[in-house]
Structures are given as structure tokens and as C-alpha cells.
Amino acid sequence: MSTGTSTKRYETPNHPYQGERIDEESDLVSRYGLKNKEELWRAQSELRRYRREARSLIGEAQGDVEAANEAGADFVARLKRLGVLDDADAITDVLSLDVTDVLERRLQTVAYRNGVGNSTKQARQFILHGHVVVGDARVTRPSYKVETAEEDLVDFDEISPLADELHPERAEGQE
Questions:
Q1: Do 18 and 58 form a contact (C-beta atoms < 8 A)?
Q2: Minimal CA–CA distance to 50: which of 8, 6, 105?
Q3: How far is CA 89 from the centre of its chain?
Q4: Residues 107, 101: Cα–Cα separation, whole Å
Q5: Where are the beta strands (DSSP E) in the chain?
């Protein structure tokens, strides 16, 4: 194995053929416009890491939620900054998160919700083709995690032909 190889950043399902799980995954892949199930599995693995961290912090505090909140203040603040947790949430709320909470923070989904595309797949295409900026930075990764402070800064690049309101591919009702 060479030193430049990267490791897999997600876990696949334990059992490959479970009809109910496959149907749920297919629904999420189509609803969020994901390229394939690997992107969904990455989000699920990310959620698993969040939960594992929360359980570890609660366990170190031996079930004392106040002590766990203090010890995990940075962790909870990071999740709040990402928009995965609400401002009123605490470390115990991490355990009740769903994979949709993680998928909602992807640039692809935020761009679609901000009216950048007519669908999540179109928003993904605009991002990949370099038409979308977050603040002043062009981002070409649909999986980019958008922080709550950046949410209103997601828009078309001003030099993109799509920045013109009359462009035929623009979403209806876009300013």
C-alpha cells in the first residue's frame, strides 16, 4: 500500500439485501439529489461519529448531563455552527439526530432551498460546473457543509451566465 492512498470514510450496510433499507435509501438519494448511495453512507457515517462522540462525552461524565455539556461545549458549538443542532439543543439531543439533519446541511440542499436550482439535481449540476459561490468563494463540492452563518451567502457567481435573472435555466421566482 502506498503512502498516498486515502482510507474509506464511510461504512457500508452490514447486510446488502434488505428491501426496506434499500427503499429508504433510494428515497433519500432521490429526495436529496445524491449521486449514489455512497454519499448517503458518508452522511450516515458522519452522523454515527457525532453520536459516538456524544455517547463518549456522556459516558466520561458518568451520566451527569451538566458535566457532559461542559466537557463537550466545543463539540456542541461546532454542531450548532453547522446547523445540525438548534441553539437550544444540548449534548443529549445529538443522540436523537437523524441522517436528514446532516443531509440538510449539504451545499446542494441549501442551494436548492435558496432557489439556486429548480431541483436538487439541478442545484448539484450548477455547483459542479462552478456557478455557485458561498460568500466570495466558489465551491464546487455539493457535499460542502454550509454553516448557519453562510446560509444566506449561497448564490450564483456574479461572473456566471446564470447570474442573469433572464437565463432560461434559472429557477422561477428567483430575484
A1: no
A2: 105
A3: 18
A4: 13
A5: 132-134, 137-138, 154-156
